[in-house]
Amino acid sequence: MVKMKQIPKQERPRERLINEGVETLSNEDLLSILLKTGTKEMSVKELSLALLKEVGSVEQLRFVNYPQLLKLPGIGESKACEILACIELAKRMHQKIQYIKGTVITNAELVFEYYQPKLKDEMQECFYVLYLDPKKEVISEKLLFKGTINYSLVHPREVFKEAYLVGATSMICVHNHPSGNVHPSKQDTEVTERLIQVGEWMGIALDDHVIIGKDLYYSFFENGNI
Predict the structure, then answer these.
(1) What percent helix, strand, coil does the chain show, rounded to 5?
(2) Phi, psi (5° rounding) for residue 107?
(3) Which residues in 185-202 are b (16+ Cβ under 10 Å) and which e?
């Protein structure tokens, strides 16, 4: 095991970043800077390589979670939090709309621009609801369900309870299809129809239901289904 202090100073990742530019560093070099230190048995570079091996590749690093990081010897709470914070910042850098609360929603494309970077790497379906005021400004955003979306899970009681709590006059439902296919399933259509019916009775309109794919979206409103 070669410790970082045994490497000539000019060859260390941090010094190379300063002198040669960040783009010249390897994936393990970049992780070494984040991790800072290794363990008694493993140098920081070896720890970086072990992390990449654990997740499969640098592309798969965006899917890593807190419990998975803690399984690796040498990564404790502090390092795990720093890695996850860095990954989340990288995701947010690609979002055109950083904060949905306070945004006036005038079309489904705005919804897509906010949720596509947020949901494109999700392996499960996530069901969000945007709650709007009379000017179509977002009062609240709530993740209600995570998993396979069906009628039994998306119960109107949970959807409309938050609407009353925040004083919403209408809402937009949003969920993703991890497959990338944005065509609504039978369950998607059933859920949408049920929410429209309950919304008419309760006086809180469903303005749209937007399905997010990898690069496309489907809007029930734009397709004349609301």
Answers:
(1) 45, 15, 40
(2) -160, 165
(3) eeebeebbbbbbebbeee
> What gap in Å lies between CA 191 and CA 203, rounded to an integer?
18
Q: Tell me how far CA of residue 5 lies from CA of 21, 24, 29, 74, 140, in angstroms.
A: 21, 21, 15, 18, 50
Residue where the block lists tokens 């640098």: 58
Task: Give yes or no for a contact between 60 and 66, defined as CB atoms under 8 angstroms apart.
Answer: no
Amino acid letter at 193? E
Residue 151: pLDDT band (50, 70, 90) is very low
Is the whole model's pTM more than 0.70, yes or no? no
Residue 185 DSSP one-character state: P
- The alpha carbon of residue 161 and the mean position of all alpha carbons in its chain are separated, in whole angstroms, by 24
Please tell me whether residue 104 adopts helix, strand or coil conformation: strand
Measured between alpha carbons, how far is 128 from 144 in angstroms, rounded to an integer? Answer: 6
Question: Which residue type does 37 have?
Answer: T
Give tens-digit pLDDT for 210-225: 999 988 999 999 999 8
Residue 176 host element (H or E): strand 170-176
Instruction: Answer yes or no: is pLDDT of 47 > 60.
Output: yes
